[in-house]
Design goal:
Layout: E1 6-7, E2 15-16, E3 22-24, H1 75-84, H2 122-130, E4 131-136, E5 145-151, E6 158-162, E7 171-175, H3 179-184, H4 192-200, E8 205-209, H5 210-216, H6 232-245, H7 252-262, E9 271-273, H8 313-318, E10 324-325, E11 342-343
Antiparallel strand pairs: 1-2, 3-9, 4-5, 5-6, 7-8, 10-11
Helix pairs in contact: 1-6, 1-7
Length: 345
């Protein structure tokens, strides 16, 4: 098992050990854990800021801007524009062959990015980072988040979170660069390990309002931006940073949309994040189709048939269906070890 990347400290500030951290334009990300007792227990009321006994890492603050952005771009926005110019501009590759499973087990802890190998799954890690007033399920080493409050970056709303089969979906974890979008813009050329890192990289993750996340689907900046205009500069800056880190490209329409947002930005918050491991060999360049296709928005997947069956949680995760809530196709009590209505967390 790899050494943990960062340590929690009592103030909730991210501390990076070893190699210097890469500065990125905007902070936010979350995580989780496998740990859980076989029987329900009283929740801990330990807050995020007091989570030092987890022994892993915490994340930088992810406050949501409320003021209107000034007309002139700031130094941070200018830096994002400069980084945007380093990204290749191409058409979308075919979506053919895309599957969530190509990006590894959902919310796995076995990754080489911030929060990897800390004993908690990525979903709970991000909830811990982005929620305030967090409480944890007992005997999970401050890993399984039970309750908390989200100041939603996408809508500006305050959203209470309560773990449960009918309530967990109120707060979802969004991939800022959607995995389907990434697949069509260079991720096909990445190794499975790199794609798994991308899917679990805190820089690419944000706890957000569930319905808003569903409306985004796999849209890029040309087809979707957060309703909260004061967060758009940070949102676009983070997308650019992620695409640069994983050598993904942008379409012409996407680049134009990003430039429009950043040209009217005020200061965008920055944060330190661990450097992303890069391969020693450069993958072959992708040759786009002869014609540039208009940006596509992935339609919601059709409802799963009622006879869906999963042998175990490994099969659930391989299908990208974890976690399963009671009542969803494929849920069974044998997959829900603690009987709380949420299986394969």
């Amino acid at each position: 098992m790899r050494a943990r990347h960062r340590l929690f400290n009592s103030s909730g500030t991210a501390t990076r050990l070893g190699a210097s951290a890469v500065a990125v334009l905007a902070a936010t990300l979350i995580g989780g854990c496998d740990a859980g007792s076989s029987t329900p227990a009283e929740p801990s009321t330990t807050s995020v800021d007091a989570a030092s006994d987890r022994g892993d890492l915490t994340w930088p603050s992810t406050s949501v801007a409320t003021e209107a952005a000034p007309a002139a771009p700031s130094g941070d926005a200018a830096a994002a524009l400069a980084e945007l110019d380093t990204l290749a501009v191409k058409g979308r590759a075919p979506k053919t062959g895309y599957s969530r499973s190509l990006f590894g087990q959902a919310w796995t802890d076995d990754v080489n990015v911030g929060g990897g190998h800390n004993g908690c799954d990525t979903r709970n890690d991000i909830l811990t980072r982005d929620l305030t007033g967090v409480t944890y399920k007992a005997r999970t080493r401050n890993c399984v988040v039970l309750t908390g409050t989200l100041q939603d970056a996408y809508t500006g709303r305050t959203i209470p979170f309560q773990r449960g089969e009918r309530t967990s979906s109120a707060v979802q974890i969004d991939h800022l660069v959607a995995l389907s979008d990434a697949w069509q813009k260079g991720a096909q050329l990445l190794s499975t390990e790199e794609r798994t890192d991308l899917a679990n990289d805190p820089r690419n993750l944000q706890a957000v309002d569930g319905p808003t996340n569903q409306r985004k689907s796999d849209g890029d900046a040309a087809t979707w931006l957060p309703p909260n205009k004061s967060y758009r500069c940070t949102y676009v800056s983070r997308q650019i940073a992620v695409k640069a880190a994983y050598r993904l490209w942008v379409t012409a329409a996407e680049k134009s949309a990003m430039q429009r947002v950043l040209s009217s930005c005020g200061g965008t918050p920055t944060t330190e994040e661990p450097a992303v491991d890069t391969p020693t060999t450069t993958p072959p360049a992708y040759t786009p189709p002869a014609t540039t296709r208009a940006p596509l928005v992935e339609q919601p997947a059709p409802a799963a048939p009622s006879d869906v069956y999963y042998k175990n949680c490994s099969a659930v995760r391989a299908a990208g269906a974890a976690p399963l809530l009671r009542g969803q196709p494929g849920y069974s009590s044998k997959l829900d070890r603690d009987g709380d209505g949420v299986a394969c967390e």
